[in-house]
Structures are given as structure tokens and as C-alpha cells.
DUF3784 domain-containing protein (Blautia intestinalis), 104 residues
Amino acid sequence: MIYIVFDFMMAVIMFLFGMWFYKSEGKAANFLSGYNMKSADERKKYDENAMCKAYGKRMMFMSVPFIIGIIIDIQYLGIGCLIAWGIWLIMFVLLLIDRHKRER
């Protein structure tokens, strides 16, 4: 039961952070690592609203593995949580790779 609750809380947290980024109209850009360390002149080159919407969508999509984990945990307790974290980790690494390519 604890695995199901944990997966549910992670899904809710990821989804709410995604919604917050998506609806922030660019105000959440300061919470993106690396971006918040850029000078004001460098920040003018970026569309903060579009960037927050893109990251918000990604964060909302990153809640899906935990929802799948809940479904698996109902049948196989603990396995769904492990699978959800594995999928989430792969998604996170792909996000970092994509972000590294964009910054070049």
C-alpha cells in the first residue's frame, strides 16, 4: 500500500509542478537551473513564457510513469514503483541530453 501512495504522491507533485510552470507565464524560469545564473542580457535572448510552457508539459508528462506504477503496484506490489522510477530516470536523462544539445 505504501508503494501505491508513494507513486500517487510523486505523480501529483510532478503534475502540479508542471501545471505551475505551464501557467506561470514565464515567471517560473528563475527556477530552471543554469538559466537563473545567466545575466540579464543573456536572458533577453530567450522566450521565458515558451520555455516554461515546454518544461511544464515535460513535467506533466513525467508524472505518467508513476500513474503506470500505481496500476502495476496494484497487482505486483513494489514492482510498479521500481519500474516507474526507472522510466522516470530515463526520461530525466533524455531531458538533460536534449537541454545540453539546445544550449550549444
